[in-house]
Amino acid sequence: MNSTLHNSQPDSSQGCEAQAQQQQAERQLLRQARRRVDLKMGWLTHASVFVLVNLGFALLGDGQRWTQFPLWGWGLGLAIHGLVTLLALNGGGLRERMLAKELEQLKRHKAQP
After folding, report:
1. Distance CA 92, CA 95 (A)
2. Residue 64: left if φ>0, alpha if ψ -120 to 50, beta else—which one?
3. N or C: which end of the chain has fewer CB within 10 A?
């Protein structure tokens, strides 16, 4: 009977450990999802303000040439913001691969006398 009790305890602790790992993974996914949503919302807010302000300039400027300057300059900034957002969303693995490569190089360099 003691052997049955003894065998059931590791299963219980393994179950708790697996559950803790699952909760940790879910928290990490939630953080990652929030970060991705924040990136998207940041760009959407930027794009919305860009459209509204430049539309206002166009209406108030009455066809004057000066209204094009903020449109082109800010448009370039918005495009760069969009590119950075896109790379951050789709290139997430790139950063981790580069980090792993740098760590490996540093370890090899430190290991050499």
Report:
1. 6
2. beta
3. C
Distances (CA, A) of 104 to 34, 76, 97: 30, 37, 11
In whole angstroms, give the CA distance from residue 68 to residue 58: 8
- HEC assignment per residue over the chain: CHHHHHHHHHHHHHHHHHHHHHHHHHHHHHHHHHHHHHHHHHHHHHHHHHHHHHHHHHHHHCCCHHHHHHHHHHHHHHHHHHHHHHHHHHCHHHHHHHHHHHHHHHHHHHHCC
Among 88, 89, 84, 52, smallest CA distance to 71 is for: 52
CA 99 to chain centre: 15
The pTM assigned to this predicted structure is 0.66
What are 89-108's pLDDT values in tens digits?
887 677 788 889 999 999 98
Q: How many CB atoms lie within 10 A of CB 39?
A: 16
